[in-house]
Amino acid sequence: MQGIGQLVAALVMMFLTLGFKSSLETAADTKSCTGGCQVSVDKMWRTLIGFGAVPACIALYYRLTIPETPRYTFNVARDVEQADEDVKAYMTGKREGETDEVARAQVHQGAKANLQVPKASFRDFLKHYSEWKNASLLLGTAGSWLCLDVAFYGLSLNNGTILKVIGYSTKNTHSVYEYLYNT
Length: 183
What we know:
Blueprint: H1 2-19, H2 21-24, H3 36-65, H4 70-75, H5 80-92, H6 101-111, H7 122-129, H8 132-157, H9 159-165, H10 176-182
Helix pairs in contact: 1-3
């Protein structure tokens, strides 16, 4: 998804640069970009940041509206009664189960002693990952993400060099528009 985000951001910025072309061509370079040119650049960046906030807002909406799974309710929240009602509701096609709050409190009080699970420690972590099966899974996942991130961020770091090689250099630009369009 990082690559898609970078591509969409570049396309949005290119279209914004094309949209504000008339006001960006008035300035010869970035130092002489005043008045309407500055306002245009300000609007461009605000619009780009706004587009970048859209995926975050969508993710936040779904995170707040999707109900917790019965497994989470049972294992983590330790709410046996609610988990049971959620499973029954799921089987009938409803969104969430509705529990009797009095019965729920009684079950929670009665089961409190049985639901006390010791917290995981660093020793448990070492024991789990000392097994080759678990360690290889962790190393494989972390290694593949590291390689992916190095590729994406490496391309971003060398973006100026790559653009110069393919002919999009900011060296001989005659206006702020050309400067922004070539970067």
